[in-house]
Amino acid sequence: MIGCSSDPPASEAPAVRFNETLQIGSDDPEAPDHQLYSQVAAATVDSTGSIYAVDARDGGVRVYDEDGTFQRTIGERGQGPGAFQSASAMHVDAQGRILVADPGQGRISAFSRSGDLLDTYSLPGVRRITDMVPLSDGRYALVGAGNGHLLHVVDSTFSTAHARLVPRKSVHATDHKLERVIKPYFAGSVAALDDGELVFVPGFYSGSLRVFTQTDTSWTQTDAYESPNGRDVPVTITEIDNAERVDLPIRMQNGQFAAQMHSVSWGLHTPTDRGLVHVFAQESDGGLELTVERFTLDGTHRGTTVVDTASTLNVTPLAMDADGNLYLSDTREVPRLRRLAWTTTE
Questions:
Q1: Are 3 and 292 in contact (CB under 8 A)?
Q2: Phi and psi (nearest 5°) for 308?
Q3: Is the confidence at residue 3, as pLDDT, over 90?
Q4: pLDDT, tens digit (0-9, with 9 covering 90-100), for 144-153
Q5: Long-range CB contacts (< 8 A, 24+ apart) of 254-263?
Q6: What sign does the dihedral 145-151-153-158 (CA atoms) show?
Q7: Model pTM?
Q8: Where are the domains of the chain?
Q9: 40-122, what's its fold?
């Protein structure tokens, strides 16, 4: 898979392409379990290139080396210590601990690389974490619905919330009342910059990224990065029989509805020497275009690359490593994990 970019101006920003370098997944029922996926629910990569992935159904973190060779499984599906009901986000910290967010049990489990359970942390009133990013002082920024907000700064043990930012009511996607039902599933993403600022983008992407700065007493929004992408109305919700496309079915007592995504954010990243990278999907005539856009760290938009096009939300970006490699869950035909390598051309 090769994506092309349009960069204004070309003299300042080289073109970016993404080439597939790895697939993990099989449709052979006799294949080993670590090759069979229903859907990759979460994935991350550590500093050695090792890949960690969780299937949506069977639980347990599957560990692969950089070449995709299976190494081991960490944890399992369940409710006891070291087990998950579901995994919505993962991160490998500077100490090499694998942190797995399990919103179903309201906790984060920390494992060693060899698979030993090290700690279990209770989440401070945050449901369905969609992103977690370490800060330079050992704290974490968590994205997820909780206490009426979407962005939370917590201590190193995830037990105390030091700040809650981005009120849920400040993120507007549609006038339909069922927006509140689906918003926790598209809470957004966050990136921590070297100067201590946080950049947040809601899952319902309208083209604006919010920048927060910490003072002695609080965090405040100090800036916004503006993009030519996004939609003023990022999502439409209708009765399912009237939907042009069903990206997310919603079942309620008074009937069935469908959410059609026009622009949805999937992640913010800061790969080495590549500025701020935003991965999102945006509606086009051909379907939903999986897209990467780039900003300088001070917010200048540097270009957009279309990576892939899907008919619905069946290609989901999950992680980007320090080299800019993009890891995707792809449920078209054979559910699998894909890696696309970042390359530039002058």
A1: yes
A2: -165, 165
A3: no
A4: 999 999 999 9
A5: 257/178, 259/178, 259/182, 259/235, 260/235, 260/236, 261/234, 261/235, 261/288, 261/313, 262/231, 262/233, 262/234, 262/235, 262/236, 263/204, 263/205, 263/206, 263/207, 263/229, 263/230, 263/231, 263/234
A6: positive
A7: 0.93
A8: 4-21+125-325+333-345, 40-122
A9: Thrombin, subunit H (2.40.10)
